[in-house]
Amino acid sequence: MKTDMMAIGRTVGGGQSRPTHGQRFWGYTRKILVTAITATYTVVALGGPQDGQVVSGQGDINLTRSDTTVISQFTDQLAIDWSSFNVAANERVIFQQPSSSATALNRIFDQNPSQIFGAIDANGRILLLNPNGILFGKSARINIQSLVASSLQLSLEDFKSGKYDLRALADSHGAAIINRGEITAAAGGSVSLIGDSVANEGLIVAEYGQVNLAAGRQATLDFRGDGLMFFAVGEAVTDNPEDVKDAVLNQGQILADGGQVLLTANSAENVFSSVVNNEGSIRAQRIDTTGGVIRLVGTGGTTVNSGELVAQGATPKDTGGSIDVLGDSVSLTDTAMLDASGATGGGEVRIGGDYRGGGDLQRAEFTDIAAGATIAADAQVNGDGGQVVVWADDTTTFAGSISARGGTDSGAGGLVEVSGKEHLAYRGTADLRAEEGAYGTLLLDPGIFVVCDAGNATCAGAPADTISDTILSGQLDMASVTLTTTTTVGANGAGDHIYFLDDPTLPLGVPTNGDGANVNVSWTADTTLILNAGADVFLDGSLTATGAGDTPVTTPFNLVVNFGTLGAGTIDVFANLAGLSVGASLNGGANADTFNINSAFSGVANGGLGDDTFNLAAAVTAGGPAWVTGNLSGEGGNDTFNLLTGGTAVSLIGGTTAETTGDVLVGNNVNQTWSITGAGVGTVGAQAFSEMENLTGGTANDAFIFGAAGTVAGLVNGAGAGDADEANWSAVAGPLTVTLGTNVSNVETLTGGDSAATANFTLAGGNAWNVTGPNDGTVDTINFVDFGNLTGTAAGNAFTFNDNVTGTVSGLGGDDTFTLATGTTNTVAAAANILGGTTGETTGDVLIGDNVNQTFSITGAGMGSVGFQNFDEVENLTGGTANDAFIFGATGTMTGLVNGAGAGDADEANWSAVAGPLTVTLGTSVANVETLTGGNAGFTLAGGTAWNVTGPNDGTVDGVNFVDFANLTGTAGDDSFTFAAAGTITGNVAGLAQVLAAGDVLDISAIAAGVLVDLGASTAAGPIGGTFAGIETFTGGDAAATTAFTLAGGADFDITGANDGTVDTLNFTNFGNLTGTAGDDAFDFAAAGTLSGLIDGLGGLADTANWSLATAPVTVTLGTSVVNVETLTGGNAGFTLANGSDFDITGAND
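Given the sequence above, the corresponding structure tokens read:
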């Protein structure tokens, strides 16, 4: 029977009406009861939920007896507004719902927190929302499908649309949700307690389901079909008016086997002492691969765990689950216990962040694991140990214990990382052993790390960035250990380094031998110590290991060092590594790294891809199992290996096979022999090397002996000044070219092929060559033996031959000089080739002949022979002090100078076999040659000043005889061309330039038959078959023969003497006849001017002849003295005009 109270408070149907008194609860000022969240809260019997109004959906509210309220829900969604919702210890509230997925929203508008001390039963989902908080007392027994108890509110509209977006009211602050009773969700159900603060002091059970304890001002829920819930906390809690210590606190027990547990809080900084704090027990075991997830996630403060977090595998076939403890800071106290072990494999535990700080997981700035705290992720029977990560972006302090062991029947140890990105103090243990498999790996990853002497007081104080040698030794007996430095911040301002030092406060960056003498790391397990340094590694003290190592898998070592991973690094090895049973592997990075090996060890050293330097001050020996090769490898960079002591039994590997330059092996400062047996392969003393591009000796005497297959791609450098270094290729079959400065330097003696193979050997790159024996000699003070071919440089070279070279001598391309010393060409046993330079070169190379009579035969462009000596690409030829003959073949040419050199001898240059045309220029094409022979037509001889033509195209010029040059060309100065009686030139004569005064002179006075010189046509018919040019003075016949010489083609004649004068700025002498042009011409006689022959005006209408300045009587006979002149001017008295026939006198003597 329905009571009146329930009748008044019931609305049946769609919830269209709502009592007026219910509306006022949205606007009143809420009263926060501090006692609601204290253990001393006084319970008052409140008589069950009050004034329930159905505001959405359909349902009944019935009081079936005085202590029992029954809510019958007829629709999937039901919303009820209550004026209060309290349940006394003897009371029960029952929700009868149509299904387990049906949801009942209960909004409570009470000025006080709801107090639940009795029982609530529901077969569906229940939301209890009271902005002033909810307290579940110790006597409370809640049995539901799913429960949401919150101080946040949900609008009716969002509820009806299925949007569960819970938000705090603006004037509600500090409301708490507290459970001291027992809350049990059905299998697969969930329990969510959400408020400004949340505390569980009782028991919460949600097997195969989900438990959420959350502090925040906003939360989003989504009930999914699999029974689990999507849950996210949004807006942070910004104030704490009741000074609650923890935003989320668990002091009770939470059980969610097969499910998930989340404790989360979103708070502004410094609002709570800790945002998430577990002091109780939380268990979420993994069942049939389902569930097993525990997450403590705090934002805005510290997450603390001092209780138990158990996510073990629950059955013999399960692996361990996963546990996350995250926050801005994370603390595990000395009573904390975390266990994610499983029968078939360890689970995952992440504290402060994910592996190496990666992924999207929240990262703590500071993480502290106290001594006594335990973390387990073991494989209990089979399988591998799990993964445990302890991370902080700044500093991690670790003194607890971690176990991630392999299974007792099978499996390997797990992976554990304990890292502070900037700083780490490690004083705990990580047990990663396995009875039937390999031990696991512990990664320690700070910004800098020092392994220090446990007996040192500072080290014993456990400062940051340190691990004591005692702890490291013990740790290596339980796991392989990787120390990694990856940032630039560390103790004393240094970063990226790993040092072994007695006192960790020593100035970092400048440690020296002995600074870590007391550091002693020793272990017996089959584990490996791996050091990964972004920059430098300093090893001192001693490292001793009797196990087999486990890294790398195929060829394990006890010690693996990788340094310079972030930039150029240096490793200093002073530590005693002789006690490492399977040796060490030292590896540089991709930059220019330095290896300073100061103590003996067995193993390998690899330089990586950078330009590395290896300084070997002690023996690096092969040892241990056969796979320890004792290699020092430069890998792919340009590496340098310095042997600072005697030879050592180690294989030095320069780099990759495809590399051609870069790696350098530097020998010791003692007399030593280098045996090169293959391509960059060989030995020096007892030291083997391979893939080495450059070899450098010491300050003593080095002998570089090449075997039949021996080659070095780079430089063989004798290094020491003034010693007696040797490089010998006599065992090589060739062909082979050895270039000074590129293939060899600072070596005093170079030996090429044996006598049968010298033709295959070339020595190149020198400048000053002196051949003193057959294929032997010196170059730039270096001795060479048995090189059949010599090649200079592009800068110009000097080759002096006191003996013969059987191959080719090449100047390469510079201005070269080839000197054939006394008797060379007479004693050559086999023809040699001299190659002056590149084909396109036009000047520079000089071949100097011997001081004996010799013939240079020029057969091509700069090509030919002298005696037995062939030459090519030579621009200049120079004879000796005896008689030289330079004979040009049909295609023979020289772009430079043919120089007879010797004074007073009978040198000859002959171009008669050349088809022409050809110009030979004195001083440019030829010099110091006494006789030049051309080829008549098309041949020009140029550059002389005093020319005497004595026969047809023959004569002398400046003391040089010439024969068969049809054209003569003078210089830019004053030249003279004098023709003897029989002298003729069939071509042209050119004075080259015209100047005032006498200038260039054409003297034809010796030709008795006379000559007509035509200025207009530039011809001198008779002695010159062609034309003349650039002549300023013409000299005709002597006094007896002047009338046989005619000068024609001028327009302005000034006769200044007997048959002498000028015409149009040109001078003439001894021309008895003058002939003008077709235009108007003028013949003017000076006072002493006379002409023995004829004046011919030739053409024009106003030619004149003027004797008015003459001082002696003049008779002008028409037709004999003058013709074709229109105006004749005399001098009055004493002047006679004769042989006219028709005179008209029109004026006084006119």
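Helices lie at 4-8, 20-23, 156-160, 457-460, 469-476, 824-827. Try to locate this feature in the token string yourself.
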